[in-house]
User: Fold this.
Amino acid sequence: QKEVEQNSGPLSVPEGAIASLNCTYSDRGSQSFFWYRQYSGKSPELIMFIYSNGDKEDGRFTAQLNKASQYVSLLIRDSQPSDSATYLCAVKKGGSNYKLTFGKGTLLTVNP
Amino acid sequence: NAGVTQTPKFQVLKTGQSMTLQCAQDMNHNSMYWYRQDPGMGLRLIYYSASEGTTDKGEVPNGYNVSRLNKREFSLRLESAAPSQTSVYFCASFSGGDKRLLETQYFGPGTRLLVL
Assistant:
């Protein structure tokens, strides 16, 4: 089992819809979870991080964490064409203060 | 603040040539990283430096060496480039420690390397 798994997509949603991106991880000791956005040809940029079970909201973005089921998700409300990008899930494992493990990313396309 | 800078932006090498990718950060971060990103493979950690004076292997270290020159600079060297090292290379830094609000890795703009 891969350490961090994401559907590669592409995920296509119409403008204004909710985009749901999912990520599962294998290490139950994982402590911190991150969502990065990467536009084509650009470097990743952090959107959100979450540590505790439940939801964390920031504007149109909501991160959800369920440690029992070992998944983390990102919801994007009122999706805009500018949200079209690859979304990378990253996990920091327990005991590893310095390393993130990334999933392969999900390509999201928001159609006008 | 420039954040994380990388040089060069693009490079073409012939098989067997050597080169050094440079990375510098001006955020006074303790930890620095080198990743490579290939289509369909996501970001893979090559080497990292948890603090000045230390370096450790990541997931794919073979064919690379690194130097943490000082707190600001972390270089990646390809001693004998191979076509399999064609990739986009990202340097990143983060402050480290236990302060969760600071647990953010900042990425440089990347170096696109083609090995013929």
Summary: Chain A has a mean pLDDT of 91. The CA atoms of residues 43 and 110 of chain A lie 20 Å apart. The first strand of chain A starts at residue 4 and ends at 6.
